[in-house]
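Extended Data, panel c. Modelled sequence:
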Amino acid sequence: MAQKLKVSLIGNPNTGKTSLFNELTGLNQKVGNYPGVTVDKRQGTAKLDNDIVALVTDLPGTYSVNPTSLDESIVLKNLLKDNSEDLPDVIVVVADVENLKRNLLLFSQVQDFNIPVVLAINMADQMQKKGISINIQELEKELETKVILISVRTKEGISELKSTIANFSDLKANTNFKSFCERIDSSYFASLKKISNRFSVYQLWLILTKNHDILLLSDEIEALKQFEKDVSLHKRYQHKETIYRYQKINEILKRTYSVNKEKASDLRSKLDRVFTHKFAGYAIFFALLLLIFQSIFDWASAPMDFIDELFAEIVTYLKGVMPEGMFTDLLIEGIVPGIGGVVIFIPQIAILFLFIAILEETGYMSRVVFLMDKIMRRFGMNGKSVIPLISGTACAIPAVMATRTISSWKERLITILVTPFTTCSARLPVYAIIIALIIPEKKILGVFNLQGLTLLSLYILGFAVAVFAAFLLHKQLKIKNDSLFVVEMPDYNIPSFKNVFLEVFEKTKTFVFDAGKIILAISVILWFLASHGPSSFDNVEQIVSAQYPKNMISQEELDKKIAASKLENSYIGIMGKTIEPIVTPLGYDWKIGIGLITSFAAREVFIGTLATIYSVGNNDEDTTTIKEKMAMEINANTGKKRFNFATGVSLLLFYAFAMQCMATLAVVKRETKSWKWPLLQLVGMGVLAYLSALIFYQILR
């Protein structure tokens, strides 16, 4: 049986730590949550040699073990454990070759935990371009650990790193904190060490200053209380510690690290001048967004049509081979249309994630953060708020979690409250099918797809409303604002195909399976509610047949009327009829009203709901696609198409603004530790959605 080592990857943001994690683990990884918090926990297995397998944990990026955000505190919690079984066997600190001085501060702190540490200096392939040279042998001697030059992009040094991890017992676990203690206040730290023999003096110092005394026994906590009184002393000693660490790092780098600017052939500064230009920068960003949304429609149309027709053929095939009965009805009218309502949007969602992954891999996304900071500050946020707002185009849940990097509580709260306005991937299925129904597929100026431009305008609308809502909240919320904005500007890189593939695969899989489970469950419930009703439901067929004698209409027409009448008198029909007076002014009927109710579980359920309802209410042998069923739906009052331009715009606006996601509300409650803010979101966004849909329908009808 292979030996399994516990390996933790630690590093500053944008050092390539997660890229190294992907390289080591490949598809053998899983994403969960750390106990008690909603921060993502990424773990995977890596085969080091024939006998050794490593369980690799990718810890959140941090500049220091002295945390300023929830993400950073995870690193400290994983290193501050009194049980050796919970600690990693070896730590790999990933550093950026161009920012080694700052990266070594974190390394020096991690090294003081007395756990074997390997320093992996990434982006070694950039050294010649940057004019950088490193004396690795001398650096290893000074740091008293193994130092490996790696390049995740070219796979340089990866084999050596695996071998070093496998032979971690050859590494020395040491600490330099004792020398700092002597320079700061030797008697103070000597007294602190007497509190517990289970922790080093550095660990006790962090427990004291970061309020982690939950790790201590009752008598140890009592002993620690005498040190907790003088907060100003702690800050002064922490400041001195950081100064002494940097002094030592500077001395080491003087002997081991050099940069010759004359030999450098770097395009970074030239590219930055273009991408962060006060005019050109915004134009380039807008052009990239335009390209993304054109691609979502143009590239995805063929595979989407294929999937749509495939599911229609599956239903036709099942109708022909399966015997009549309840299970067959469930499969044909509930499960298959429900799953089809999710699978059809895989191409569009995968393309969206593909572009986001490429922008992050190249380093361009950090330039967007920097570029947008000036604008965001006017509306009560900062440049870091752009990351949640942009990542909200994938899903609002991780986007809300991403606000933890914002140090100011007011700016963080505002960002949490407005992030759900940005168009997430769950809205994309609704947008895509409604746009396809009401917007003609034609080119503007022979280049731009009109449907793609409509989709782009919805994304811009969501972002604009989010920013405006942030401005109103900034003016209304009476919360003290202590703003600090630091953004990392990584090097420009050629995207790694492996990293991009893993990101797209993982995000798309998460969307499909998470949405699929909800939609499948709701499809079964909807089928039951649409196929059953109160006692009067059983008499519908007799009543309709009596109204239309055999010579009056054909059997095909009679079957249609019976199916429609059954649906209207079913449990779901009764529910829809109950809320119909509320949604009629928006241009909706009771069927769409049911879709609005069920989509509160998840927005993308709306299409699956209509697919199920129309399947149950349609007894035609010639099975049509979801889009065709919606296109053929007739408004009984006007005799015209139900999904006309006015109704379509009304639906687009409703879903652009409504908080149709229970999971997001739950995460907001967890992040804000109060029901006050998610309820404010639910009511505020709901009122805005209803009023905007009402106004535009009444104008356009």
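The chain has 31 helices and eleven strands. This feature is highlighted in the accompanying rendering.
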